């Protein structure tokens, strides 16, 4: 009876929110339902005939979850997926409510759930997933998460909550995660990159991890692909990057998106994607590893990946006032550095707007901006402007990087409009924004009819 009350109440709240234009009902209905029935997630997850897949990582979980969910749909399964990116327990509960009818019947065979780093143990305990996918660990929201060691301890608790037959899919190129999951050898799938053509010349100065997670000695890198991800070994102990189960042998950036040659066993697959950037190469091989481990046929999985567009704010393109804008979410040094790397690699000489907020969901501490390699933007020789609550902070950081901002605008929507007016007709522009700034931009773009509501995409 309590569960039925929670479902009915949550669905009514979600309906009312959407009907009144107060939002997509991606969190509040779940929060209320969990107050009424604290075991709601466990109850509904039990109804999944093919179980649940939980995906966690500092960067890439929204995109990886979408890639995997769409691949599973292509195989004919009904998928419960928090596609809005609402990844705390209340958001996951709201996702299950949306897939449940008024009588409590769940329309879903399998769930694909991206989960917040700190919420991982609780969600694993509640939904008892058949698979846990771990993408990466980077410094993010220091005032909330603390240093990487804190998150690693939290994830160890999540691993302890797994069922004995659960599969772990992990990024072999992340030394923290490789060591964290070393005890799961018999039920662990690993993924990574191999292509030296996309390797960085050195470990970035802002790399979050340089020491062996096992013995504390310095790690030695043969190749670095992104942040502290790459081919590594410890100088003092036996720790080394494990051979990936699924590996991208070549990674090419083409005009239409990424082209990968991916090895699994004795087979090689030519993978195409609408997405761009080395970080999305990792997301693609993560989704492929999870798909193969779940038993998806390559003939279904590979074509499905090619059809998946960018998630909201993740290389999403919109046309506004005759200009084509590309939206990129930035939230930590590694993600920002990779966004800059993408801008430089695509050679699209479009003006740039960087919008920085410091609300709770962004992290109040914006000192991380000083670890971003903004100097790399100079090679583009394009106008760079700033906006958001911390417009002044990023403008100062740009000045220290030798880039004089062309405009410094207050707010988010006002910054967009004033910057947009400086772009030539039929021109292009890059918009790099932190989480709450991106949400505000997306709401405004939806209001103007040039993009759908982010929670409905």
Automatic annotation (TrEMBL):
<dbReference type="InterPro" id="IPR036565">
    <property type="entry name" value="Mur-like_cat_sf"/>
</dbReference>
<comment type="function">
    <text>The lipid II isoglutaminyl synthase complex catalyzes the formation of alpha-D-isoglutamine in the cell wall lipid II stem peptide. The MurT subunit catalyzes the ATP-dependent amidation of D-glutamate residue of lipid II, converting it to an isoglutamine residue.</text>
</comment>
<keyword id="KW-0961">Cell wall biogenesis/degradation</keyword>
<comment type="pathway">
    <text>Cell wall biogenesis; peptidoglycan biosynthesis.</text>
</comment>
<feature type="binding site">
    <location>
        <position position="237"/>
    </location>
    <ligand>
        <name>Zn(2+)</name>
    </ligand>
</feature>
<keyword id="KW-0067">ATP-binding</keyword>
<keyword id="KW-0862">Zinc</keyword>
<feature type="binding site">
    <location>
        <position position="212"/>
    </location>
    <ligand>
        <name>Zn(2+)</name>
    </ligand>
</feature>
<dbReference type="InterPro" id="IPR013564">
    <property type="entry name" value="MurT_C"/>
</dbReference>
<dbReference type="InterPro" id="IPR043703">
    <property type="entry name" value="Lipid_II_synth_MurT"/>
</dbReference>
<feature type="binding site">
    <location>
        <position position="234"/>
    </location>
    <ligand>
        <name>Zn(2+)</name>
    </ligand>
</feature>
<dbReference type="GO" id="GO:0009252">
    <property type="term" value="P:peptidoglycan biosynthetic process"/>
</dbReference>
<keyword id="KW-0133">Cell shape</keyword>
<feature type="binding site">
    <location>
        <position position="215"/>
    </location>
    <ligand>
        <name>Zn(2+)</name>
    </ligand>
</feature>
<dbReference type="GO" id="GO:0005524">
    <property type="term" value="F:ATP binding"/>
</dbReference>
<dbReference type="GO" id="GO:0008270">
    <property type="term" value="F:zinc ion binding"/>
</dbReference>
<feature type="domain" description="Lipid II isoglutaminyl synthase (glutamine-hydrolyzing) subunit MurT C-terminal">
    <location>
        <begin position="329"/>
        <end position="438"/>
    </location>
</feature>
<keyword id="KW-0573">Peptidoglycan synthesis</keyword>
<feature type="active site">
    <location>
        <position position="365"/>
    </location>
</feature>
<comment type="subunit">
    <text>Forms a heterodimer with GatD.</text>
</comment>
<keyword id="KW-0547">Nucleotide-binding</keyword>
<keyword id="KW-0436">Ligase</keyword>
<dbReference type="Pfam" id="PF08245">
    <property type="entry name" value="Mur_ligase_M"/>
</dbReference>
<dbReference type="Pfam" id="PF08353">
    <property type="entry name" value="MurT_C"/>
</dbReference>
<dbReference type="GO" id="GO:0016881">
    <property type="term" value="F:acid-amino acid ligase activity"/>
</dbReference>
<keyword id="KW-0479">Metal-binding</keyword>
<dbReference type="GO" id="GO:0008360">
    <property type="term" value="P:regulation of cell shape"/>
</dbReference>
<feature type="domain" description="Mur ligase central">
    <location>
        <begin position="55"/>
        <end position="197"/>
    </location>
</feature>
<comment type="similarity">
    <text>Belongs to the MurCDEF family. MurT subfamily.</text>
</comment>
<dbReference type="GO" id="GO:0071555">
    <property type="term" value="P:cell wall organization"/>
</dbReference>
<dbReference type="GO" id="GO:0140282">
    <property type="term" value="F:carbon-nitrogen ligase activity on lipid II"/>
</dbReference>
<dbReference type="InterPro" id="IPR013221">
    <property type="entry name" value="Mur_ligase_cen"/>
</dbReference>
<protein>
    <recommendedName>
        <fullName>Lipid II isoglutaminyl synthase (glutamine-hydrolyzing) subunit MurT</fullName>
        <ecNumber>6.3.5.13</ecNumber>
    </recommendedName>
</protein>
């Amino acid at each position: 009876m309590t569960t039925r009350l929670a479902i009915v109440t949550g669905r009514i709240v979600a309906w009312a929110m959407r009907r009144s234009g107060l939002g997509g009902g991606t969190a509040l209905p779940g929060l209320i339902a969990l107050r009424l029935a604290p075991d709601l997630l466990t109850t509904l997850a039990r109804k999944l005939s093919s179980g649940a897949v939980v995906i966690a990582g500092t960067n890439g979980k929204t995109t990886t979850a979408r890639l995997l969910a769409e691949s599973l749909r292509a195989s004919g399964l009904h998928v419960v997926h928090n596609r809005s990116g609402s990844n705390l327990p209340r958001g996951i509960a709201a996702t299950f409510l949306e897939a449940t009818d008024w009588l409590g019947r769940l329309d879903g065979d399998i769930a694909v759930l991206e989960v917040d780093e700190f919420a991982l143990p609780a969600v694993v305990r509640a939904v008892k997933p058949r698979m846990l996918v771990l993408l990466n660990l980077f410094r993010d929201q220091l005032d909330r998460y603390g240093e990487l060691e804190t998150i690693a301890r939290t994830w160890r608790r999540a691993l302890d909550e797994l069922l004995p037959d659960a599969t772990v899919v992990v990024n072999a190129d992340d030394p923290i995660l490789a060591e964290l999951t070393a005890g799961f050898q018999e039920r662990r799938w690993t993924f990574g990159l191999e292509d030296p053509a996309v390797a960085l010349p050195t470990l970035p100065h802002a790399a979050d991890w340089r020491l062996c997670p096992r013995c504390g000695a310095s790690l030695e890198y043969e190749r670095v692909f992104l942040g502290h991800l790459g081919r590594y070994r410890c100088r003092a102990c036996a720790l080394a990057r494990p051979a990936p189960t699924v590996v991208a042998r070549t990674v090419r950036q083409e005009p239409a998106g990424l082209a990968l040659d991916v090895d699994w066993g004795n087979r090689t697959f030519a993978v195409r994607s609408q997405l761009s950037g080395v970080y999305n190469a990792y997301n693609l091989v993560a989704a492929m590893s999870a798909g193969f481990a779940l038993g998806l046929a390559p003939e279904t999985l590979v074509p499905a990946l090619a059809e998946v567009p960018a998630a909201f704010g993740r290389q999403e393109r919109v046309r506004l006032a005759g200009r084509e804008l590309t939206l990129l979410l930035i939230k930590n040094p590694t993600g920002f550095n990779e966004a800059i790397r993408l801008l430089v690699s695509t050679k699209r000489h479009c003006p740039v707007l960087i919008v920085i907020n410091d609300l709770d969901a962004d992290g109040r501490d914006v000192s991380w901006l000083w670890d971003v390699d903004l100097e790399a933007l100079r090679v583009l020789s394009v106008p760079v402007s700033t906006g958001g609550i911390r417009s002044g902070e990023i403008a100062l950081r740009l000045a220290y990087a030798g880039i004089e901002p062309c405009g410094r605008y207050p707010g988010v929507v006002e910054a967009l409009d004033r910057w947009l007016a400086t772009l030539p007709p039929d021109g292009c522009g890059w918009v790099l924004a932190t989480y709450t700034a991106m949400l505000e931009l997306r709401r405004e773009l939806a209001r103007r009819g040039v993009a759908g509501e982010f929670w409905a995409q």
